[in-house]
Amino acid sequence: MAAGGSAIRGSRVGAGPMGEQDHGYHADRVAISYWDALGNETVRYFAANLPDEEIPETIDCPSSGLPAGRDRNNPPEVSKLEPYKTHLAYVKERRSEEEAEQLLDDALRQLRERRGTNA
C-alpha cells in the first residue's frame, strides 16, 4: 500500500472550506453580447450593479482579433492595414537631392545657432 499525502481520492489537493460563494460567483451578473465585423458573437459578463458607463462599448473579439461592438447591425469597421512595403517602395518615397540638402542645411544651421558658432 502506498503511503503519503492526506488527499482523498477525487478531491482537489489544497481545497479548503472556500466554495463558490467565497469567490464571488454568487453575485448577480448581466450578460452583454458583442459582435465583430465577421458576425462572431462574444458574450461578456459584468456585475449587475456596475454603472452602464463603465461597461465598455467595444472589446477585442477573442475568436477573430477584430474589434467588436454592442450594436449587432453596425459592428466596428475592420481596420485598414497597410501592406508590407518593400525596400524599393521606401526608396521611391525618398526625398529629392535638393530637399535632402535643404534639410541638412537647416539642421546644421539650427545646431550652430544653439552652440553659438558660425563655423
From TrEMBL:
GO terms for molecular function: bacterial-type RNA polymerase core enzyme binding. It comes from Labedella endophytica. It holds the Pfam family RbpA. The keyword tRNA processing does not apply. Keywords: Transcription, Transcription regulation. Residues 1-21, 56-81 are annotated as: Disordered. Belongs to the RNA polymerase-binding protein RbpA family. Residues 69-81 have a biased composition (Basic and acidic residues). Forms a complex with the RNAP catalytic core and with free principal sigma factors. Binds to RNA polymerase (RNAP), stimulating transcription from principal, but not alternative sigma factor promoters. GO terms for biological process: positive regulation of DNA-templated transcription. This is RNA polymerase-binding protein RbpA. InterPro entries: RbpA_sf (IPR038638), RNApol-bd_RbpA (IPR025182).
